[in-house]
Write a structure and sequence with these properties.
The protein has helices at 17-26, 57-60, 64-73, 92-105, 120-124, 133-149, 187-195, 203-206, 211-224, 243-251, 266-283, and strands spanning 3-8, 31-34, 79-86, 110-115, 155-156, 161-162, 179-182, 199-200, 235-237, 256-261. It is of the alpha/beta class and 285 residues long. It has one domain: Alpha-Beta Barrel (TIM Barrel). Helix 1 (17-26) packs across helix 3 (64-73), helix 3 packs parallel to helix 4 and helix 4 (92-105) crosses helix 6 (133-149). The model has no long low-confidence stretch (mean pLDDT 95).
């Protein structure tokens, strides 16, 4: 059965996560996702990938972990996820504890969507070399996995290095929350196969080559790398409100689709949520 979730930039002027969470939970939606941007440098030398000026919610977005915890606290079944979390801008030891904590508080409902970032200015403000960010991200994720799964973890890499240590709590989910790698084909797809528990592409980018074509290529790449494609579920973000496309996603074995909600108040969001509730009913999800 196709899972359906929503992604939203929470701001001071949007619907509150503790208000939106129950709305989604009561209607049977599977998950709520929050993007991450620590800040947006005023230099703005990196073009917005979608083209045109950067939309205001990028500047105004709240911390994803705090927003997700607010939603998790007032819901029962709704999963909460970073969509995506920028590991290139986060200390792995601090982030590992934060994720373990929210996973415990939500009783295993956290999904760790990760990405390596597109905004060079923002990334380099965190003392990260843009050119080596992909290796840094991999090391930080490997280090967090060690912290989550070992009694006395240690990690020694080029960018992440720590001796034996102790950190609790461990995550509620065993061995840890799923690490779902976001990004375009083929590079992010390869990273998902190397160290992820799933892949998050965007619907608009998949459409250029055909959703089914790239999904088939991803699964072939996984098989060739010795990974079982079934262990790498696909979550497609920014799906359109079109029943035929949703049915097609279901037919080709997509695990989850996520629709976008604007950073608006309840009056603007409820009509969108109502339409998606009807689509979900028609799908039988």
């Amino acid at each position: 059965m196709l899972k359906i979730g929503a992604v939203m930039f929470f701001t001071t002027y949007s619907m509150h996560p503790a208000e939106l969470g129950p709305v989604l939970d009561e209607r049977g939606f599977e998950s709520l996702w929050v993007p991450e941007h620590t800040h947006i440098p005023s230099s703005r030398t990196t073009p917005y990938p979608a083209g045109g000026p950067l939309i205001r919610p990028y500047y105004d977005i709240m911390d994803p972990f705090l927003a997700l915890n607010a939603a998790a606290t007032v819901t029962t079944n709704l999963k909460v996820g970073t969509g995506i979390g920028l590991v290139t801008q986060r200390d792995p030891i601090v982030t590992a504890k934060m994720i373990s904590t929210i996973d415990q508080l939500s009783k295993g409902r956290f999904l760790f969507g990760v990405g390596n970032g597109w905004n060079q200015d923002e990334i380099e403000n965190h003392d990260t070399d843009f050119a080596t960010r992909h290796k840094l991200a991999r090391e930080r994720i490997e280090a967090m996995k060690a912290i989550w799964t070992q009694e006395e973890p240690e990690y020694h890499g080029e960018f992440v290095n720590f001796a034996r240590m102790k950190q609790w709590p461990k995550p509620y989910q065993a061995p840890h929350p799923p690490v779902i790698v976001g990004g375009a084909f083929p590079y992010a797809a390869r990273r998902a196969i190397r160290y992820g528990d799933g892949w998050i592409p965007r619907a608009d980018r998949l459409e250029k080559d055909g959703v089914g074509v790239l999904v088939a290529k991803f699964r072939q790449m996984a098989t060739e790398a010795g990974r079982d494609p079934a262990s790498l579920p696909i979550t497609i973000f920014r799906v359109p409100e079109e029943i035929d496309r949703l049915r097609y996603c279901e037919e080709i074995g997509i695990d989850r689709v996520v629709f976008s909600l604007p950073a608006e108040g309840r009056d603007k969001l409820m009509p969108i949520i109502d339409r998606w509730t009807e689509l979900k009913r028609r799908l039988g999800s």
